[in-house]
Design a protein that fits this description.
With about 190 residues, the protein is mostly beta strands. Helices cover about 10% and strands about 50% of the residues. The protein has one helix at about 1-25; strands at about 30-35, 40-50, 60-65, 80-85, 95-105, 115-120, 130-140, 145-150, 160-170, 175-185. The chain has an 8-stranded antiparallel barrel with strand order 2-4-5-6-7-8-9-10. Bound molecules: 2-acetamido-2-deoxy-beta-D-glucopyranose (NAG) (2 copies). The site of one 2-acetamido-2-deoxy-beta-D-glucopyranose has 4 residues, from loops. This is Dirigent protein. Belongs to the plant dirigent protein family.
Length: about 190
């Protein structure tokens, strides 16, 4: 009796251990890389951000401006709210891996400098439901910009790091843009 109870307990423990191992060993999806180090996890996430002002269902909308914004070459004072799809590939129809939700505002009078205050919330694989917070300057006309990642949730709790962004396409008439993000965080 005691023997079979002990075997049952052992079997249950092994099942629990196996499901724990399966959970923790879930591979990162293709657009992500996870590297466990002795002191934490290094994560690299690469995706495309689709900022679309045109069409009947824009994902980026200008919600406020200053009196002189439209006379400013840098659109100083314009505030844009976005709910932009993040995709695995450059094509808007490629796999959706998350959404960039938040706002950016033109904070430069003599240079194009946006203040980004945005969540990147992921929808794919092990990152489904986890978010990163971006907060910082985006000199959008530069070939490559660096922005701070100041925190995260879910699998990305306590994340800190940086995002490197490169514009892949920009339409000067309607403002539509596709930007490649290469994000590296540690937690
Ligand atoms: C992400 O999580 C939501 C809510 O739990 C679920 O409905 C959805 O199917 C998941 N998506 C993927 C791609 O796993
Ligand atoms: C993405 O950023 C990381 C960290 O800065 C860098 O090592 C890597 O080379 C970048 N990837 C590409 C494809 O540029």
């Amino acid at each position: 009796m005691a023997m079979s109870a002990a075997i049952l307990v052992l079997a249950l423990q092994m099942m629990a251990l196996r499901s724990w191992a399966q959970r923790t060993a879930s591979p990162a999806p293709g657009w992500a890389q996870r590297l466990e180090t002795g002191t934490g996890t290094m994560t690299n996430l690469q995706f495309y951000f689709h900022d679309t002002f045109s069409g009947s269902n824009p994902s980026a909308v200008r919600v406020a401006e200053a009196r002189d914004t439209d006379n400013s070459l840098t659109l100083f004072g314009a505030l844009v709210m976005v709910d932009d799809p993040l995709t695995e590939g450059i094509s808007p129809s490629s796999k959706l891996v998350g959404r960039g939700q938040g706002l950016y505002g033109s904070a430069g009078q003599s240079e194009v400098a946006f203040l980004m205050a945005m969540s990147f919330c992921f929808l794919d694989g092990v990152y489904n439901g986890s978010c990163l917070s971006v907060l910082g300057k985006n000199a959008a006309l530069n070939y490559e910009r660096e922005m701070p990642i100041v925190g995260g949730t879910g699998l990305l709790r306590f994340a800190r790091g940086y995002a490197l962004a490169q514009t892949q396409m920009a339409n000067p008439i309607n403002g539509d843009a596709i930007v490649w993000y290469n994000v590296t965080v540690f937690n």
